[in-house]
């Protein structure tokens, strides 16, 4: 409250503060309302299944047995695959655009990348079905099982649709987010940082690694969170290529299912109350997972940062 | 300046309708019959400009829910409501069959161009995962002369809840006790095997792209998109290709044993010519309508739909109701009180 009574603050300023404070609080309020409504509307399955909803692996709308684990697994694994591919690629593109490419090249590419971010997800899904799926079934999956087949991750029949395909499509969708935000961050690193290290005789790689990336670390992490959040919640493109099978299989070639996808697929035709509320509880789990993953990621950054500072 | 004022006055005059606001009737539900319903509501509005019927195709589940809660004037569903749902509804709901649809098996076997014939046992076995290869004797037996490969079968089903799935699994559980016990009937089920595709287009896309696969789509979708589909053996032992005639024949076959509330499944219907994987789609109308004007409008529409409306169905590839059923429904419209 003290800041409101500071002398010399004009009434206009006070009004301004009050306005932005309200807007800021409304974000909290919306989050709270969503959590409350999700909880309130999933009473039946919470009473019936309790915590076992989280590790139940059966999803049978006829016998009314509901467990969310296969969806939880599918959501997390497809998002992890997406980030494993998208982070190196996206960062590479961002570094190239901000550090190495001449403006004539980097501006049009940056523009195209932002255009990619604006493409609706159903288009990515269609590209997935008609372009990626046949290629993955005929080329990528046989090649992977031929070379890395000793790993259980790359075994089984190549369907084309499945966890790996979903991860690839998601990667394609989140790269633009990483590139676009990271590039801005990298460009904001002061020139003096670069000049200083170059004058010590560093190569361009050393300059990026020692002077630019550590400076931009928190912003880059931010771009990765944005990408992760998009990957966790993506619905349309994923359901078109993941195979929609609520099973937990180690092989990435096997079909899977995600939380967002099952809600979108089954919500309209869910006739019984328990069934409908089980779908809402899936939404609640997704909400909790998103918060948890974000919190964990923030902790991770915090760790990284303190370590960096100790080393320096 | 004068002309401008005049123009404005004219504009205002034009936007105010000459007659009173048309009465708005709201409906919601099944997506499968949406094309024919929107055609009907359009045509009916031309005949009765004072009545405007607004239909949201939100899915059968939503249709049942909203009709039960009385948040809409009528609902629509691809699968009849069960007794528990009926007892929970705020008002007694009546079922009125409107048109019929069918579901057909579609497949992609490289090297096979012949129309395959499927026995009920073969379809149930494939979707249960007990028949896993295309050259399984149960499939080969019905298709003598076709060289079937020994490749594993990839099953494709709908991932979204849908009336199409309801009809398909309703059929499977009638012909296979094992299916009935293990899986059951509903708009979404716990599939023993297979990949899920979203919508008819998702299933047919997956089937087209995946060699040695089999899936199921609506007859209308298959016909519009020129997708080849197989024949299915009916309860009389004949292999029938789905068509408007064979679907209507299934309904005539079932008409003799039609229950008074029209909640009947047409799958595996009797009759030599009946295609076995067919179903009605229903409108859900409250038995007691509080607003007499609305009641009159709704019953008026139902009577028109049963008589004149049916002619629009074949053009949109829906099988029209057989005469016997129309006669029964016309009587049932009289039960609606308002």
Describe the structure.
Helices cover 75% and strands 1% of the residues of chain A. Chain A is mostly helical. Chain A has a two-stranded antiparallel ribbon with strand order 1-2. In chain A, α9 (204-233) packs antiparallel against α12. Chain A starts with 10 loop residues before the first helix and ends with a helix. The model of chain A has no long low-confidence stretch (mean pLDDT 89). Chain B has 338 residues and is of the alpha/beta class. Chain B folds into two domains: 2-100 and 279-335, D-Maltodextrin-Binding Protein, domain 2 (3-Layer(aba) Sandwich), CATH 3.40.190.10; 102-256, D-Maltodextrin-Binding Protein, domain 2 (3-Layer(aba) Sandwich). Chain B has 13 helices and eleven strands. Chain B has helices spanning 2-15, 34-47, 60-69, 83-88, 120-128, 137-142, 163-175, 177-182, 199-209, 219-224, 244-255, 292-307, 323-333, and strands at 23-29, 51-56, 74-77, 93-108, 117-118, 154-158, 195-197, 213-218, 231-233, 239-240, 278-286. Chain B is elongated. The model of chain B has no long low-confidence stretch (mean pLDDT 89). At the A-B interface, β1, α6 and α11 of A face α3, β7 and α9 of B.
Tell me the radius of gyration of chain A: 23 Å
Taken in chain order, the helices and strands of chain B follow as HEHEHEHEEHHEHHEHEHEEHEHH
- String of helices and strands of chain A: HHHEEHHHHHHHHH
Q: Oligomer, anyone?
A: heterodimer
Whole-number mean pLDDT of chain A: 89
Mean pLDDT of chain B: 89
In short:
The complex is a heterodimer of chains A (312) and B (338). Chain A has 312 residues and is mostly helical.
How would the blueprint of this fold be written?
The complex is a heterodimer of chains A (312) and B (338).
Chain A: H1 11-40, H2 43-49, H3 52-55, E1 59-60, E2 65-66, H4 69-100, H5 103-117, H6 121-148, H7 163-187, H8 191-199, H9 204-233, H10 236-241, H11 259-266, H12 273-311
Antiparallel strand pairs in A: 1-2
Helix pairs in contact in A: 2-12, 4-7, 4-9, 5-7, 6-7, 7-9, 8-9, 9-12, 11-12
Chain B: H1 2-15, E1 23-29, H2 34-47, E2 51-56, H3 60-69, E3 74-77, H4 83-88, E4 93-108, E5 117-118, H5 120-128, H6 137-142, E6 154-158, H7 163-175, H8 177-182, E7 195-197, H9 199-209, E8 213-218, H10 219-224, E9 231-233, E10 239-240, H11 244-255, E11 278-286, H12 292-307, H13 323-333
Parallel strand pairs in B: 1-2, 1-3, 5-9, 6-7, 6-8
Antiparallel strand pairs in B: 3-11, 4-8, 4-11, 9-10
Helix pairs in contact in B: 12-13
